[in-house]
Fold this protein.
Amino acid sequence: MNSSTETKEVLKALHEAIADLPNPQNDAVNPHFKSKYVKLDAAMSWVKPRLAAAGIRVSQPAITRDGWVGCLTRFTHGASGQWVDEGEFLVPFKGDDPQKAMSALTYARRGALFAALGVAGTDDDDDGNFASATPKPAAQPKGPTIAQMATSDSLHDDMERAADAQDTKAVMDLWAGACEAREQRKITEPQFHKIMEL
C-alpha cells in the first residue's frame, strides 16, 4: 500500500466512514450465468456519500498492462490532503473489443472498491466471467483449508494486538492485508468477517 508521508487523518476518516458499512444490495443479474451482482454505478452511489461525509474522496484511474486491465484505488482526505492507495487490481484481458475491455475494467473497479472497503456485493464471482472469458469458477471446499486457518489465525492475532495497542496504521495495514487475503482466497468469507469484527 502506497500513501502520503502522513496518514493519520486519512486513515481515521476512512475508518469512521467504513466502520459499520453494510454490504451493498445486488441490483443486477448476469443473463449468462443467472447470478446477481451490484452494478458499478450503484456501488458508487452507495459508497460516495458515506465517504464524502467523512471528507474522503475515492478515485480509480485505469491501468492497462500486457493483457491486463484494471485500476488503482486511492482514498484522499480533503481536509488534510493525505491519501492511501489500496494497490492495483488487474484482471486478464485479451483482444481489441472496446466493449469487452470496458466490461473487464468495470469488473476490476467494482472488485477493487469492494476489496478496499471490506464488503461483498455479489452472490458469487460469475458476473465477471464475461469480462474474463473464463468458465464458471470451481466450487470452493466446504470448510477452510489448513492454510486458510493459519492465515486467518495469524491475521486475527495481529489485528487484535494492533487494536489493543491503538495502532491505527497497523490496523489499516492489516485490514488491507485481510482484504487482499480474501480476494486471493487465502481466507474464507466467514474468516474475513470474524477478523473485521475486532
Q: What stands out?
A: The mean pLDDT is 77. Residues 98-117 form the longest helix (20 residues).
